[in-house]
# Entry
Amino acid sequence: MKYFKAQKCDFTKPVVTMGTFDGVHLGHIKLLDRVVKKAEENNTKSIVITYFHHPLETIHKKTFPYLLTEHENKEKLIKKCGIDCVLYLDFNENMAQMQPEDFLKKIIIDEIGAKNLIVGYDTHFGNSREGNYQFLKDRSSMYNYNIELIEPVKIDNHIISSSLIRDYIREGDMQYASKLLGRNYSIRGSVQIGHRIGRKMGFPTINLRPLNNNKLIPAIGVYICEVLVNGGKYFGVTNIGYSPTMKTTRIKEIETHILGFDDNLYHKNVEVIFNKKLRDELLFKDKDELIEAIDKDVQQAREFFERRK
# Structure
């Protein structure tokens, strides 16, 4: 496949949708569910066209923290909806300059052979994002395909979008972000060797480095969380910030105290799942006052999960 390197997918006249699908939120899921149903009705395959990396990374040529779902997790969530095949475009500078007409003809028609296109209300493609639903509708008879538009999903009169979810995560409102996502937000990362200050205070922590440098980090503060590690799920408390009471490095870190867990996890991969922000990160007058605050955070986390049973 010319535009989808090293990928295989057997299909004939498939049902196709396309987009970045960062977050695979409730709006995306509505679209994906319709694609799956349409493919079943036509006894064919359902296909999602997306990207290994967000197009903005190619266009702006820089790293910046915006990503809601890591590559592997995105594909897992998409296929959980029943999609048969996820194809990744090699979005390079040439692709960024491709005109919408060329994108439609060379990729959607010639490469994929789509006979049914289902797109979201905000679908855009091609140079300057000039390709959209109306563009596809105007050319449907020319290229002999059916086109269907999926209207946006709203919650509290807000259209669910990846950008809106990012805003809530940047504010630390993990509960509302979870409401829009349809699941709790999480970060996958590797455990790094830290300063081991928490262990000396009786609250050992893991220092998490996100697997993807573009991963969006929630607002600075203390969070109730769950941690997936070694095939198990544990409760925890996560501090995102600079630990100003004990450190002067001014390096932002993600540190999690896992309740009832004290194994060595250095250089292992874990996933931290955010439930709720407890408080802002504070500068305490001394170590004892900090220990008292952490002890209170842990107790609140235990009560939170006890109520959830």
